[in-house]
Automatic annotation (TrEMBL):
Residue spans crossing the bilayer: 7-28, 40-58, 70-94, 100-119, 126-143, 155-174, 186-202, 217-235, 247-264, 276-293
Keyword Transmembrane helix: yes
Pfam family of the protein (one): EamA
PANTHER family assigned: ACYL-MALONYL CONDENSING ENZYME-RELATED
Ranges of residues in domain EamA: 11-142, 155-287
GO cellular component, one term: membrane
Superkingdom of source: Bacteria
Protein's organism: Nitrosomonas communis
The name this protein goes by in its record: Drug/metabolite transporter (DMT)-like permease
Source species taxonomy: Bacteria, Pseudomonadati, Pseudomonadota, Betaproteobacteria, Nitrosomonadales
InterPro entries documented for this protein: EamA_dom, EmrE-like
UniProt entry keywords in alphabetical sequence: Membrane, Transmembrane, Transmembrane helix
Length: 299
């Protein structure tokens, strides 16, 4: 009973974060329509979150040991989170929201594999069942009669798939890294996304001059940056205290929010084939919560 009560706060934290990301595609699409491309809006919003973090967490940064033997985990958390967030935002801007999110939520499949390697979580028969069901669902969604193999056929699909892989790896690394506090892990994420976003913007030549951005757009960017700052702390708290396979299931709440939002805000609907594949992926995610394993971190 005591364990369940202790889990209420991190579970609530994950639900709040999931709800936000279920509607986050809408303001990013508004920014795209206003001339701020996805690479640039990602860079600006996470840079704002980074600046807030530098101000509020200066004590943790000042006492941080850069020669810490676990510092490599912060580096990889930043890199993987940067790639995951960039792929996610570009996917939801340019692709169909639910298709992108469902492919992104193949993450339980990748989580099982990464958790086995990095956390020594044993993969039993239920784990193989989850993997098979996830892949079957993805293949059902992606299969086209004219193609021999069900590969992603659009930019949004590729972003959803690759983003989910990086998201799963980042979650497992956050869980593995018990040497650093939530503030430092959040700083690593904001810095990683900012640097990768800046590099992508530079390569695509999509970073606008500050003077060219209107006041309304700046207000939207600032609001998103502040929201991302707050939600990063909330999510890191949840991911640090909940096992990786359970956390990804709780985050499924994002799909419910996104399905409602995309229908009413973008008039997007799914085909029967996409519904069938999506339900398989969701079922696999739910099954992943019941996988039994020894959690070496909690021992």
């Amino acid at each position: 009973m005591l364990t369940k009560q202790k889990n209420i706060v991190p579970i609530t934290a994950l639900l709040i974060g999931a709800a936000f990301w279920g509607v986050a595609w809408y303001p990013f699409r508004l920014l795209e329509l206003s001339g701020i491309r996805g690479e640039a809006s990602t860079t600006f919003t996470y840079f704002i979150a980074l600046l807030i973090g530098l101000v509020l967490f200066h004590k943790q940064i000042r006492t941080f040991n850069f020669w810490d033997k676990a510092v490599y985990l912060l580096v990889w958390i930043g890199v993987c989170s940067g790639l995951a967030n960039m792929a996610y935002i570009l996917g939801i801007i340019h692709g169909e929201v639910m298709r992108v999110l469902l492919l992104f939520y193949l993450a339980p499949l990748w989580t099982i594999l990464f958790a086995r390697v990095l956390l020594s979580e044993k993969l039993g028969l239920p784990g193989y069942w989850v993997a098979l069901l996830s892949l079957t669902g993805a293949m059902t969604m992606l299969w086209q009669p004219e193609n021999d193999f069900p590969f992603p056929t659009s930019f949004g699909d590729w972003m959803g798939l690759s983003g989910g892989i990086m998201f799963a790896l980042a979650n497992v690394l956050v869980r593995k890294n018990q040497a650093h506090n939530i503030q430092l892990k959040s700083m690593a994420i904001w810095l990683g996304v900012t640097l990768i976003g800046f590099f992508a913007s530079w390569k695509m030549e999509s970073l606008p001059f500050i003077s060219d951005i209107s006041t309304d757009i700046w207000l939207l960017l600032l609001a998103l940056g502040l929201t991302i700052f707050l939600l990063s702390i909330i999510l890191q708290y949840g991911l640090t205290h909940i096992p990786a396979n359970q956390a990804i299931v709780i985050m499924l709440f994002e799909l419910i929010v996104a399905a409602i939002a995309s229908y009413f805000l973008a008039n997007e609907t799914m085909t029967p084939k996409e519904w069938i594949g999506g339900l398989m992926i969701i079922s696999a995610t739910l099954f992943s919560a019941h996988i039994s394993y020894e959690d070496p971190i909690s021992q």
